[in-house]
Every structure is written in C-alpha cells, then in structure tokens.
C-alpha cells in the first residue's frame, strides 16, 4: 500500500478542529472516509488483545478507573503476573487472530525491580511474531530505553481528555507529566499509542481540545485509542453519570469524534476501545466508515467487558471487513 505523499500536519488549530466537528454529519464522515482510504487499506481492521498483567491497587485517582485505590469497586488487587502465564495468554490471542498483544499494569510507574519480568514478556511475545504494546504508567528515560532495547513496538500512555478538563478527572498526575512520558517514549524510538476517553461529562469543546492535543504532538501517535466511558459503580465518574445520564456521549457525537481523529491524524491507527460492547452494530459500522481501523478483541479488556471474538467475527462478516494481517499495518512514525 502506498501512503499519500503529502506531509502530515501537526499544526492544527482549535478553530479548524471545531469547524470539522460542526460539519453536517454525512459530510464529515464522507471526508473522513476519503482520508482513510488515501492512507490505509479499505475494509481492513486490525485486531489486538489487551491483558491486565497487574490489576488494581493503583495510587492514582483517575475518576473513571475501577483499578484506582481511591475507588470503591470491590476489585481485588493482584501482583504482577508470571511471564509464563502472560506468554500463554499471548499465544491464545494469536490463535484467535490478534496481531498485536497489549499488556497493562495498574501502576503509577513501574519499579526498576519489575523491569526484568517486563522485558521477558516483551521478548517472548515478539518471538511469537506479534506486535507488542505496554502500558505501565509513567516512565523514566532509562526505563523507556530498557523497553526499547527489549524490542517493544508501542507504548500506551493516554492523555485521557483535554488539558482544560484533565484536572477535573485526575489530580495525582499532571497533564504535563503525561506529555513527559510520551517524550521519553519517542526519544527511545518506541511508537506511541495515545488517546483518551469520551463520555465523561465533557463538552464538545473538551473533545476539540482532546483531539487538538493529540494532533499537535511532535509526531502523531501510531495508535489513537478512542474509548467511550464504561461507567463503573464506585468510581467518581461512574457514580456521577449514574445521576446525570445525559452527560454520556451519544452515538452520533462519538462517530464525529472518530471522524475528526481520522482527518487530523490521517496515518494513525484509530482504535475503537472501551465501550464497544454497548454499541450497536450500526454505530460500529459508522465508526469503521469514519476511519476507525483497529479494535480490541476478546471478552474482556483490562477489567471491563468487551464484545467477544464470535460477535466481532459475525460483525466483520456482515460488513465485509477483513482482519488486517501484521504485514499490512501502517507504520505511522516510519512513514513520517
């Protein structure tokens, strides 16, 4: 596949992004579909699997997260999984058609004593021929280099929401600290996976700010996960949305967000992540039309439910979508 020869913009203004959001819905989706087909194989979607390798007990106070020690969800904290168990799960994911295996640990940041086990996981999954992704919280420069030396393909570190809304969602880690980790990851030569969550009671202006923050990074993220909040009782946002259900994003606005992400970050993989299990097939189809080309497969994400392999296979068959093979993946950062 040949990418567009035109350079990728990283100088989007908020006014330009707001104007995209304000387009008539069909016009916006049409433009996003054109951008998608100019930069990616049509009707192909990447399948990834996400595994929680260390669950619960995180000291961060992220208002959406059931794994936060500040939440009262009854989730039991666990220790870091044995690498052998992780590799067994990766082998099963590969058997079910996943080409990328993502591993997440509920830490503020990994301890240096944890790094040898993490390195073993990365090397083992890569040896299976799968792409590797880790999300471990904040990283030091040295930890990022260690992961790069192990061959890590992607590091996920979401900005979550707009810079202005951020402090209302999280207080134990600043927006600037998230950007600092992204810089460590880029400097180490690891591809960035970075997105966030919508449907947290934010305004459209916040969604504009969220996309703007991603689309003006020095290099666009190779992967952009767009999550729809899964409200969990016992979390700040889960309890808040239970009382104010109208704060939840509607399907049309979610598709608009996907479309604007595709237009402003044309070569990124835009992933439908959390919240997909509650979306109709029609909503997911619109998201694929608007440029989403990656999903998480399986029955579970880190702690939230997911659509499941059988349901995804049936949807792909109905829509004529082909699972993307590893060699068909667009390498954003190399392309730029």
From TrEMBL:
Binding site for [4Fe-4S] cluster: 58, 62, 65
Keyword set, alphabetical order: 2Fe-2S, 4Fe-4S, Biotin biosynthesis, Iron, Iron-sulfur, Metal-binding, S-adenosyl-L-methionine, Transferase
Record InterPro entries: Aldolase_TIM, BATS_dom, Biotin_synth/BioAB, Biotin_synthase, Elp3/MiaA/NifB-like_rSAM, rSAM, rSAM_sf
GO molecular function: 2 iron, 2 sulfur cluster binding; 4 iron, 4 sulfur cluster binding; biotin synthase activity; iron ion binding
Binding annotation for [2Fe-2S] cluster: 102, 133, 193, 271
Keyword Metal-binding: yes
Biological process (GO), any one: biotin biosynthetic process
Pathway the protein contributes to: Cofactor biosynthesis; biotin biosynthesis; biotin from 7,8-diaminononanoate: step 2/2
Family: Belongs to the radical SAM superfamily. Biotin synthase family.
NCBIfam families attached to this UniProt entry: bioB
Protein name: Biotin synthase
